[in-house]
# Entry
Amino acid sequence: MIKMVGFDGDDTLWHSEGYYQAAHAAFSEILGHYVDLGDRGLHDDMLLTERRNLALFGYGAKGMTLSMVETAIALTDARISAKDIHRLVEIGKGVLQHPVELLPGIREAVEAVADEHALVLITKGDLFHQEKKVARSGLADLFRRIEIVSEKNADTYRRLFEEFAVTPAQFAMVGNSLRSDIEPVVRLGGWGVHVPYHVTWSHELDHGLGDSHERMLTVESPAGIPAAVRALGELAGG
Amino acid sequence: MIKMVGFDGDDTLWHSEGYYQAAHAAFSEILGHYVDLGDRGLHDDMLLTERRNLALFGYGAKGMTLSMVETAIALTDARISAKDIHRLVEIGKGVLQHPVELLPGIREAVEAVADEHALVLITKGDLFHQEKKVARSGLADLFRRIEIVSEKNADTYRRLFEEFAVTPAQFAMVGNSLRSDIEPVVRLGGWGVHVPYHVTWSHELDHGLGDSHERMLTVESPAGIPAAVRALGELAGG
# Structure
């Protein structure tokens, strides 16, 4: 029996990755004044710097901004002007200030699941930024607990299951990332509802799960979430 | 009766502010090559930028680094070189990587209090950086819960008391900051043990508490903490 349902935040409840991708595009445009990026664009250089810095910065827009500044200085052999570096900082600030826009149909979906289950919100990233997004989403009251974590791996979910006093088999996670929301939960013996988002940060594509798994259902849009949770509940034994 | 004791992290369990102040000194030195800072130094400009950015960045070394970059560009009228901006980013990374050095006597003090009370660690700042410091401190096992929060105000403590299932009168907080550790707790009806640190970030000097309060004791060093907690326990009624 499923007792508790967890929801991811970014790109599950509200739009997020699009703002990061727009920031990367603006970054490429500025760098294009200094170096010929050719066809490859900035993508690989930036991803490399970001991944190296993840161990020091963790996730979030502040770390991304510092990585943009580093990448820009390296790729231009320090020719980039302070004015343009300031533009990079402003791009990062823009990401931190973006409006919180809920995905279409998500409020109704969360409310429907909340009628039958205790809900928790489990979101990854910068504490301060995530708290603001949760507050602005207007959904906070639907969740019993709001957990902002630095990484979503098996250890994190194990600790949360203990704090929530549920077994993995009593828990289903709803999210857009196979890597962060679904794989660790189903491998621990929980359940997953995958709601793919139209864009995914390359880093999140790195997972060991195929397109299907016996403890996971994929839905096309938030409207499909309540039925998927019910169906997993049937599999879990009523 | 005091049931639970909270400990602050930075400058209570381990050294922190010194690393930030060293970063500011290195920052001043770099800026000194561009502008005559005179007697006033960089202090006021940097504090102004940091405070303005707190609402967007929250606390921590990544926000400080971005504020250094902004302040440097503004004060040099964008004359600062990309090389020197890269040095600022490296200074910020240095703060994120500093070793975790416990204050002398703190391990023994925490262990002594742990013999008689349930302990929680309540620390403010960047989630990722604080988690690393907690892990490196070697003290994590002494605490029942570790709470990393974005701000330590009355609302935060109220929420934590509810989660911990204690009343304010059953809770004592140990920390170096009157603003963040002591004032909100004693105003809610809890107890405070103030352990002043030899340097304090200017931002933390902004509080409405005098040097003494009937629900607070001040101790000179960690060695005094266990006796102070016991004395407050007597005041609290056994």
